[in-house]
Amino acid sequence: MLSIEANKNLIALNTLAFNAIAEHFTCISCEADLLKALQYAQAHKLGYQVLSGGSNVLVDEFIPGLTLHMQMLGREVLEQCDQQVLLRISAGENWHQLVQWSVENNWQGIETMALIPGLVGASPVQNIGAYGAELKDVLVQVRAWDCQRKEFVELDNSQCQFAYRDSVFKRSKGRYIITSVDLRLHKQQAVTFKYQALKDYLHNQSLAKITLKDVFQAVCAIRSDKLPDPLKVSNAGSFFKNPIISPSQFQQLQKDFPKIVGHPSACAGVKLAAGWLIDHCGWKGYLESGVGVYPKQALVLIHTGESSIGQLMQLADDIKQSVFDKFSVQLEIEPQRFPATG
Ligand code: EPU
Predict the structure, then answer these.
(1) What is the pTM of this model?
(2) Whose CA is closest to atom 40 on ligand 1?
(3) Which of 45, 142, 273, 340 is deepest in the core (most CB within 10 A)?
(4) Which atom of ligand 1 is nearest to the CA of 128?
């Protein structure tokens, strides 16, 4: 039986911990629930939106219509051979617990994405990534309800149109409701890690042989050192994307700022470290009226509990403006407005 709550406060369901009243709210624990909820919304002429782990959203103070909170659970091994395993993971599973499970089983491919907050169903939306790996490298297909065609569909990796922190799910806002993802992980591949901070950390451990578990533990240590735990300090992870600029603009910037941090990106541009830009505008550690910039990582905005989303957005605008004034680089906000705008 579907239970619908009225005027539900989502403060505990968004990691920035802003007050947000959902006009109608229900939890979805299976595909049948989802269909019932959509029928309910249609019968009562309500709009609807899907809330996953709430770790990458900027919630409005009032959320009209029906909010569907995804809680579908299940981890299944679909196929395996000596080299690979194919997994089907339901949308409501916790991402970090999935990573832990894969490492316990010695399945390789997502270990550097440890401690990314949120649920599996949201992972394809912004193609989550960390320390040189992205979801798109292991994702086989996504199962979703297509709100346009009004049927369940399976999208393979190329149909998901993955790019840096982007996908078809992000671009066609509201069209798909993801119910499960299939991932292919490896059993016997040599452990690799491309990211310098990870290499340095593991090198300093002087291990005879580096295992998946070592990589997982290293990522957990590095992340917990510089990124705040949302249960202790309210935040939504990286607040801005790392901007991609042309090589010529990068060369120009290097003349004025020799220490600027940039790496070649897949699309012939240079990906700048937004954290470095914000840091060099002097924002690190800023805190006023309950919103601020995390002292250990300038890319993370925080909320200390007595402020409003409007004040956080004002701070984000001020940061964007100062970065533009100093470096002529436009920052783009990474978390999604909830409900989606435009
Ligand atoms: N930097 C500074 N000052 C800062 C922050 C960073 O100078 O306050 C410099 C660092 O010295 C470093 C560079 O900027 O040289 C890059 O910083 P970092 O290695 O911390 O990575 P990032 O680019 O800031 C990205 C992802 C993270 C992911 C890390 C590790 C984005 C928007 N963010 O951060 O993702 O964990 O790389 O791979 O791509 C997330 O999305 O929530 C997230 C944490």
Answers:
(1) 0.93
(2) 238
(3) 142
(4) 41
